[in-house]
Amino acid sequence: MDSTPSPSSSSPFDLVSSALGRYIPRGGAAAASGPAETQGDRTTRRRLPDDPVGGQDQILGAVNLDTDLRITRCNVDAPVFAGLGAVPGSPFVGLLPPGDVPTVTRRLRQVLETGEAHVARIQRLRRCDGSELVVSMSILPAAAPQEGLTVSLIAMARRLHLYAAETAIGTSLDIGETAQSLAKSLLAWGDVAAVDLDFAVWSGEGVTGQARGRIRLRRAALVPDRAWPDGYVTPGDDLPGDASRLLAQAVRRDDAPQAIVIPDREAVERVLGSPRVIRALVPGDRSAGVACIPLVLDGTPPVVLGVAEIWRRADCPFRDSELLDLQELVARTAHHVDLARQHQREHTQVLALQRRLLPRTGGDTIEIASVYQPATPDSAGVGGDWVNSFPLPDGRTALVVGDVVGHGLGAAATMGQLSMEARALLSAGLAPDEVLEHLDATVTLLDDAESGLAAGYSALGSTCCIALYDPVGHQVALASAGHLPPVLVSPNGHASPLAVRPHPGLGAEFALREPFGVHTFDAPPGSLLALYTDGLVEDPALSIDEGIGRLANALSTVHPWDALQPAARHVVSAMAPVRHRDDVTLLLARMIGHRKGDTAAWRLPARDDAPARARAQVSALLRQWRTRDETRDNALLLVSELVTNAVRFATGPITVRLIRAGHGLLCEVGDTGNGRPRLSGGGLLDDGGRGLHIVHGLTTRWGVRWTDTGKVVWAEVAR
Questions:
Q1: Is the pLDDT of residue 141 over 60?
Q2: Which of 303, 333, 302, 384 has its CA nearest to residue 175?
Q3: Residue 576: pLDDT band by 50, 70, 90 thresholds?
Q4: CA 417 to CA 399: how far, in whole Å?
Q5: Contacts of 217 (CB under 8 A, 6+ apart)
Q6: Could you write out the three-class secondary structure of 539-570?
Q7: Which candidate in 65, 236, 365, 603 could, as Cys together with 471 as Cys, close a disulfide (CB 3.0–4.6 Å)?
Q8: Is the pLDDT of residue 685 over 60?
């Protein structure tokens, strides 16, 4: 072991070691240790005292590493570091718990490569006897990269460890990670630490008022990471029913949650009783005593979220001061567990709403596949991505994707409202740009409402893209409100984003508002249209245009004969990272359309003979299609009625179109009029004609959609 160098040395190791020499108090432990003891076996030295800062022991140490991360020199002579086994020539990672090796190695390499120090990392170190020491570790680069690194170590006092542990535990909203952080912090007081949570807490439910007889515990965390004996409960496993009841009754004695200590192995076996419970709860033969600390939320009555267990060997019983520290740490961090529970509950609720809005199926004219991946649990919460596709009554298919600003329940409520409103308006026959105008007004109204302001949530800046697919004309009409451009893949495999005019989004300030345009493009059978949200293409290392280009390249590999759902999952896995901070949404639509032989259209002048000409054309076609007599009669009467009313109330040419789809026959009559036919109480048309009651009685459904030149009245007859 190197002796303390002179203060004139300039390397980080020498500077830290020089500081160590000045720090050691006169007559302290380092001064009392002779050279022979310095070179001796550190495993014979005493354990870490309750509070090394409060005594006269040195708590600082230094280790020098080469570029291969092997120890070259070390100065860890203080008794607090006894048993670390820091030997020159050995790898530094040998001092670490196995689970921490990848992270610390990455940090060490990063400091070597960048030359930037990494300071004050709370880290556990392993002693040769299996116990662990909590230190504050800083990694300092040398003047030249080839000279390696210096790692300074500060053995943490118990009170400082309490503060550091609470800070570390509150950094995640994932309940499993929160419990794991708590277990890691508790390991400073024992050899094995476990956290068992009430199943209702684990699943995000509330636990207030839960019956005592229904206690069910699930192991949420366990440290250190090692091979455990058969039958021992590991993370994710439910504790046996008798073990759950035993722990719950132990910490709820006299109806008040309190910590308990079982001091030795004999007492442990006597209390646990059943061999099955002993196998489930006792981590090994060396474990002799255990402290059980309840995780309690203050209230009337107090609510027990679970139990933390810290196991020790027989030669190291729990002291009163340590039990006070353990109870304080668990008490300080119980609310973090409850916050994670609340986040889990909200996450589950929003995720259920998200999945409820996902498209179910396509139809005969279009194939649909969608993938939705929520943000990782430790993010701000599930985002406001929403996607939907549904057939419209007139035979077209609507594809809708949107991204509501924010996360959590506020975003979910707005997302659900906008999604349902868009579906209702599209089903009523409104064009995509008109629907976006209504959604824009809704977002503005929600932001101005007192309820929205009181909730502290604003949806201004949300985006939406709507596409309507016409399977007869093989065209798509698309309108976008600030959304990223869809990607179209032609039947020959060429993929490119659509040139959609940029828009500021929904609820923009009045000065920024622009009319929503409609972009119409051809989509022949075999075309693939991809709608998505920004979480799929955003990458800190790339521009958004490069991200869209990557998506286009991934989509170009999807062949027309590939199953669409597996292809969608493959595209998402190629684009999105495993852990993502935003929701990832992709909607793929493969255009199929109607065959030419299943559709027919005629253009007729608005004259008195138009109904007769329409009946003749339709009758000949239905005979060619071999339609049933009843269906043919109903269709002829329906077309005659609709054309007659078009001639009476409209100017300009009349269009008649028949579509054979599934189990129905769709009849469409278009004209240049702008009046909306309505079914009156008497069943007559507004002008006293024969009435829509006839149309209503002949069809399974009917409606109106608006066009640039007028309207189309459509009706479906069962075949």
A1: yes
A2: 333
A3: confident
A4: 17
A5: 196, 197, 198, 199, 238, 239, 243, 244, 247, 248, 306, 307
A6: CCCCCHHHHHHHHHHHHCCCCCCCCHHHHHHH
A7: 365
A8: no
Q: Is the dihedral of CA 621, 627, 628, 630 positive or negative?
A: negative
Sheet holding 60-65, edge to edge: 71-75, 60-65, 149-155, 132-141, 118-126
Of 341, 353, 361, 396, which Cα lies nearest the Cα of 523? 396
C-alpha angle 154-155-157 in degrees, rounded to nearest 5: 120
Question: Cα(505)–Cα(490) distance, rounded to whole angstroms?
Answer: 28
CA 507, CA 443: separation in Å to the nearest integer?
Answer: 5
Q: 601: burial class by Cβ within 10 Å (0-12, 13-18, 19+)?
A: middle
Other Cβ atoms less than 10 A from the Cβ of 564: the count is 17
Cα 213 to chain center, whole Å? 35
Check residue 162 and give its pLDDT.
67
The dihedral of CA 184, 188, 191, 193: what is its sign? Answer: negative
- pLDDT tens per residue, range 375-387: 665 544 556 788 8
Alpha carbon distance 141, 113 (integer Å)? 9
Instruction: Report the helix count and the strand count for the chain, using DSSP H and E.
Output: 19, 25
First to last CA, the chain: 94
Q: Which residue has the tokens 């309940």?
A: 175
Q: In the predicted model, is pLDDT for residue 309 greater than 80?
A: yes
Task: Pick 465 or 55 by higher pLDDT.
Answer: 465
Q: Is 455 in contact with 395 (CB distance < 8 Å)?
A: no
| Omega prior to 35 cis, within 30 of 0 | no
DSSP 394: T
CB neighbour list of residue 293: distance below 8 Å, 6 or more residues apart: 251, 259, 307, 308, 309, 310, 326, 327, 330
8 A C-beta contact, residue 245 and residue 206: no
Residue with tokens 């009554």, as numbered in its chain: 393
Rg, Å, the chain Cα set: 36
Q: Which secondary-structure segment (H or E) carries 585?
A: strand 584-591
Q: Please name the residue that has the structure tokens 């060396």.
A: 286
The pLDDT value recorded for residue 58 is: 56
Beta bridge partners of 218: 197, 238
What is the DSSP pairing of strand 289-297 with strand 260-262?
Answer: antiparallel
Band (453; pLDDT cuts 50, 70, 90): very low
Rounded to two decimals, what is the model's pTM?
0.57
How many Cβ atoms are within 10 Å of 538's Cβ, its own excluded?
18
pLDDT tens sequence across 50-109: 444 434 345 788 899 999 999 998 888 888 888 888 889 999 999 988 878 888 898 899
Give the pair of three-digit tokens for residue 49: 């005292």
The rounded Cα 416 to chain-centroid distance in angstroms is 18
Q: Which residue has the tokens 């267990």?
A: 309
Confidence of residue 266 (pLDDT cuts 50, 70, 90): confident
Q: What is the pLDDT of residue 10?
A: 60
Contact 151, 133 (CB under 8 A): no
Closest residue by Cα to residue 409 from 459, 444, 477: 459
The percent of residues in the chain predicted with pLDDT above 90, rounded, is 15
Q: Half-sphere exposure of residue 207, counting CA atoms within 13 Å on the CB side?
A: 29
Please write the tens of the pLDDT for every residue from 625-654: 888 888 888 888 888 888 888 888 777 789
